[in-house]
Write a structure and sequence with these properties.
With about 230 residues, the chain is an alpha/beta fold. About 35% of the residues lie in helices and about 20% in strands.
């Protein structure tokens, strides 16, 4: 088996983010900073060039990807801030991303079932068992969703984010097994007290950052980050 790649999201760019990246790199995993350009600037979700980010992983000997994503919860009673979710399906109706320009784009994408179970089992052994399954709704971003949009999404999905579905599609087209670990950094707009704010999200991400760092340090050796 080849090398593991870990794709880090916006929860790795704030306070404590460098420690999260270091925890993954120390285990020999290939690291991709989803929202960071080669020049070090922030890249908005809808501007990420996923193929550009993922294709080099093939040259690094990677065959599987763990995508870490920051999400808003659509289930405040079940998935509060700090909850971990390993989704098994997604909704991305307004997106049509593909690396192909021919009939190969007519694919049936999805998370790699066997790899998902490995991730869930390893994380569970670390003492931070994620929820097994759930639907991820990908919004285009970069703005937050309105309360009305959230009510629509909540009828069909469990968490909302802006990147994981597209990343899953592109990874699969490149031949990379893909699973996601979603970290709830906020309750979706209209489901918590007051409006969603970047400042409140950053405060919650700071709390979650330490937990994510510890989790990666414990989980990646179990997943065989440098191959097995």
């Amino acid at each position: 088996m080849g090398r593991l790649a870990v794709i880090l999201g916006s929860n790795a760019l704030g306070p404590g983010g460098e420690e999260i990246a270091a925890a993954a790199a120390d285990q020999g995993a290939a690291i991709v900073q989803r929202h960071r350009s080669p020049e070090g600037t922030f890249v908005l979700p809808h501007q990420i060039e996923h193929e550009t980010s993922l294709r080099p992983l093939l040259e690094q000997g990677c065959d599987r990807v763990l995508g870490i994503g920051s999400v808003g919860s659509l289930r405040p009673d079940e998935l509060g801030v700090g909850a971990l979710v390993c989704p098994d399906d997604f909704i991305a109706l307004n997106l049509g991303d593909s690396i192909f320009g021919d009939a190969r784009a007519h694919s049936a994408p999805g998370f790699a079932a066997g790899w998902r179970q490995e991730v869930i089992a390893a994380w569970g052994e670390s003492g931070q068992a994620p929820r097994d399954g759930g639907v991820y709704w990908q919004a285009r971003g970069p703005r937050f969703e309105t309360p009305a949009e959230i009510r629509l999404m909540a009828a069909h999905a469990d968490v909302v984010g802006m990147t994981i579905a597209t990343e899953c599609v592109v990874a699969g087209e490149l031949g990379l097994d893909y699973a996601a670990l979603c970290v709830v950094d906020n309750l979706a707009n209209g489901l918590g007290e007051g409006e969603v704010s970047t400042a409140a999200m950053e405060a919650d991400r700071l709390v979650n950052a330490e937990r994510l760092r510890e989790g990666l340090a414990a989980v990646l050796p179990r997943l065989g980050a440098v191959g097995r």
